[in-house]
Amino acid sequence: MRQKPSNEESSISADADAEPKGVGKAQGSQTLVRGLDLLDQVIDGPVKLAELSQRMGLTRSTTHRLANALIDRGFLTFLPREGYLLGPKLLQLGFLAQGQADIVQIARPRIEELASQTEDTVHFGRLDSDLALYLDKIPGRRRVDISSRIGDRQPLSSTGLGKALLLDDSEARWTAIFEAEHPPGTRRPDFDVWMERMRGYVASGHAYDLEENEDLIRCVAAPVRDASGKIVGAISVSSAAQYMDDDRMQTLSVDVRGTAERISRDLGWSPDTQALQKRRKR
Predict the structure, then answer these.
(1) Parallel, antiparallel, or unpaired: how do β-strands 121-128 and 131-138 relate?
(2) How far is the C-alpha of 7 from the C-alpha of 72, rounded, in Å?
(3) Residue 189 CB neighbours (<10 A)
(4) Where would I find the H helices in 143-221?
(5) What does the pLDDT read at residue 101?
(6) Which residues in 93-126 are b (16+ Cβ under 10 Å) and which e?
(7) Has residue 268 got a pLDDT over 90?
């Protein structure tokens, strides 16, 4: 059951608030924006009224009134002696929004723009068990034959897109995938070099395919995240090695990460969510 604040917080008088009572369209919009801003301020856990008021830059009585309105509608919850935190209505809306989202349709305009900008082939895919499933492909303008097709499942350890999907995983899982895809007796890359590159990809937020999956083809990839911060897909830009020297790959990394971030934002992700997750892992 939702609970409203009591004691000191509930005793704050509305008389302390000098705002006019008349609420026009502009004032109504301002109240809505303030309510949304208030929700942003409690994403990292319970926040007491005094601190919440300071974060919002509002009087305590105004903050108290906004919070009560959000509690009434389930967007906020109040815990005695702890403070305000996000309410159950947001969980419901989050599940509904996730169910309605078609990730391929959401990503399509972004990857089309990236393909036009780079003139190279752009892929979008997700994890499918221990393989990378290609969900979309925008061919480039250059005369470069990229053998991938929508619906293909490719190895994780040798494709840029596959590596990007693994960036949040443990090194133990990396090792297991590498060993499964390169069993003893087969031609395999140097594991130590591969592992060191993976650590570098985690630090940079993007991954490369340096002709590991297909001869003379290189690519730059980056992960796509949902509202929870989880990696739910990845994008990549692929082209012939002659168009992908080290300098261009470095430049493309910025563009690919930027596009992946925009798709992630379209799915509800924000840098604040990511920072909170990192703090919780420590």
Answers:
(1) antiparallel
(2) 18
(3) 14
(4) 160-165, 171-181, 191-204
(5) 55
(6) eeeeeeeebebeeebbebbeebbeebebbbbbbb
(7) no
Q: Give the DSSP H or E segment for 79.
A: strand 76-79
Roughly what angle, to the nearest 10 degrees, separates helices 60-72 and 49-56?
110
- SS3 of residue 222 by DSSP: strand
**Residue 100: which pLDDT band, with cuts at 50, 70 and 90?**
low
DSSP E strands, 120-191: 121-128, 131-138, 153-154
| Residue 41 CB contacts under 8 Å (≥ 6 apart), including other chains | 47, 52, 55, 56
Alpha-carbon span 275 to 282, nearest angstrom: 11
Q: Is 195 exposed, middle or buried (0-12, 13-18, 19+ CB in 10 A)?
A: middle
| Composition of the chain by helix, strand, coil, percent to 5 | 50, 20, 35
Angstrom distances, CA of residue 102 to CA of 6, 97, 225, 231, 236: 43, 10, 14, 15, 19
Task: Provide the residue type at 39 as one letter.
Answer: L
Q: Which domains does the chain have, with CATH numbers?
A: 14-96 (1.10.10.10), 101-281 (3.30.450.40)
The angle subtended at Cα 137 by Cα 217 and Cα 260, nearest 5°, is 90
Q: What is the pLDDT of residues 19-41, one digit of tens each?
A: 444 445 667 678 888 888 888 88
The two beta strands, 83-86 and 76-79, are antiparallel
3-class DSSP assignment, residue 115: helix
What are the pLDDT digits (tens) for 120-129?
A: 999 999 999 8
The four Cα atoms 179, 184, 187, 193 give a dihedral, to 10 degrees, of 50
Q: Which of 157, 167, 152, 171 is nearest to 231 (CA)?
A: 167
Closest CA to 56 of 30, 78, 79: 30
Question: Between vectors from CA 120 to CA 161 and to CA 165, what angle results, nearest 5°?
Answer: 10
Amino acid (1-letter code) at residue 107: A
